Input
Amino acid sequence: MPEVGLESQVFRATLMCMKLLTSSEEFALLDRRGLAKLRCLHCNELFLLEKYRVERSIARGTGKYCSQTCARHARRTSQEVSCVNCNTTFRKHGVELKRTSAHFCSRSCSAKYNNKCKKFGATRRSKAEEYLCKLIRKDFPSFIVIQNDRNLLPSGLEIDIFIPHLKLAIELNGPIHYFPLYGMSKFEKIQAADVLKQLEIQSVGCDLLVIDISAYGYFKKAKVMLDGYYSTHVKPLLEK
Output
């Protein structure tokens, strides 16, 4: 049987068992432990591998991955899917496929899609609101704490947290209250609603406390901030 040349071997490796990005000419010039450039068959990330290990995989016809984790995932059932947000094609293994019918190639795409498609005006209790209410109820069990109240103001605008005993309204404002994330038209409506809400709260004889959480994208970060803010600002206010 005629010996398979290096160029044919590299071509076969690229098609069958690995995505070898180093050219056949560059590969031939590498010494035994020289590093060849490959792309992981599972996660599509670039990585480097010694020449002798590449040649061994070519001879065995086995695939190459950037890590043992990717190798294990690749051995499981996988399927090619498209990112709902950016249409990038990628592979997901069986466990991940069962979690949701909407697939995202990254957390960034997931956040962008969910922010773009979520419905404004629908009651949605954030984790930050829930956590702050939990802190208040723990220290002041006799207080009635109402979440997402729409009955206090004439306009029907929603108040995140309302404590009737103290006539205190608390608003937790995320980035949509300070930045035009969904366009200037939506931003202007949100700002107008905030001004109207403030005026109406004053008109019914209540106080308003606004907590800016716009700089804390994840709940874990907001939780740390709220722990400190509650101790220094909210709790002393409630104790009066």
